[in-house]
Amino acid sequence: MSGPHDGKRDEIRSYAFGYVLALALTGAAFATVHWPHFVSTTTLAIVLGLAFVQMVVHFRFFLHISLGRSARDDLQLILFSTLIIILMVSETLVVLFNLRARMM
Amino acid sequence: MSANEIKHGGVNLGGAEELAYARAGNALFGFWVFLMSDAVLFALLFATYGVMLPATVGGPTPASEYKILPALLETLALLTSSFTFGMASVAMKYGASRRQLFGWMGVTLVLGVAFLGMEMHDFATMFGDGAYPTRSGYLSSFFALAPLHGLHVFFGSIWIIVMMVQVMTFGLDPRVKINILRLGLFWHFLDIVWIGIFSAVYLQGLIR
Fold first, then answer.
1. Alpha-carbon distance B116 to B103, whole Å?
2. Which of A57, A92, B175, B199 could be a cystine partner for A51, CB 3.0 to 4.6 Å?
């Protein structure tokens, strides 16, 4: 039987863990750009990859979205929004790139 | 359903505050719908920015306008404020003293205002260099995206002050607690949008 104060310590620890993880990912992204070791496309891929991981970390440790059954509504809404975003963004890109090609 | 089950995003009040916890599920899900529609808006502005990136018309370029140190400091300010707001939510949930709750909210507010100050300084420098929104397609899309996030942080900061006034006026009743949970979702969400901005805008512009 855990008292409320164990719960409090666990939640603070979870936030602190997420914070340290996010700091490390941010630092890695800035360091990759500040001290370039790779060609620019590789660097960009690393930065965007780190950004995606950091977003997942924020969702997990700050917004408490997990794969657990009870948080499913929120998770499903996030996944649905992601689907909408992928559709709308990719179609926007098609239209705008097409427009630019015609204006060249 | 067990008392400590996670029902919604952000801190769950289960096990500590049953009345607010019982109402929080629906109240917060509605706010999630708003946040996700906001995310769609930001995603489309990111897409526009990506297309407009080469459209500099011989004017200022990302490499000439962005500086890595201010971007890093702004990121650290916002990231730390997300953590301190988390601490405020935990303090509220476990009935810490009002001074402790106001302390964490105050630190969050100061960090948010510091972020806004640094961002304003960046924009002023850019305007001084002749990088204003009507100069090129690239700058139009930049000033549609980054200041919109800044505007969200600005209203989030006002919301923090409003919540402090509500806590002082009404005390920590269930309604006020749910409002603070909503503010927490909003604040953490802004930090997630900022990850996109510092990665896809600032860092991408600074890659050599």
1. 20
2. B199
CB of A7 within 8 Å of a chain B CB? The answer is: yes
- Identify all chain A residues contacting B4, using CB atoms and an 8 Å cutoff: 7
Residue A1: the pLDDT is: 40
The residue ranges of every structural domain in chain B are 18-206
Out of 1.10.260.40, 2.60.420.10, 1.20.120.80, 3.40.50.720, select the CATH number for domain B18-206: 1.20.120.80
Using CA atoms, how far apart are residues B26 and B24, in angstroms rounded to an integer?
Answer: 6
Query: Rg of the Cα trace of chain A?
Result: 19
pLDDT at B2 over 60: no
- Domain boundaries of chain A, sorted by first residue: 1-64, 67-104
The ipTM is 0.87
A95 chain-B contacts, CB cut-off 8 A: none
* Residue pair B133/B81 in contact by the 8 Å Cβ criterion: no
Q: Give the model confidence (pLDDT) of B40-88 as tens digits.
A: 999 999 999 998 888 888 889 999 999 999 999 999 999 999 999 999 9
How many Å lie between the alpha carbon of B2 and the closest alpha carbon of chain A? 10
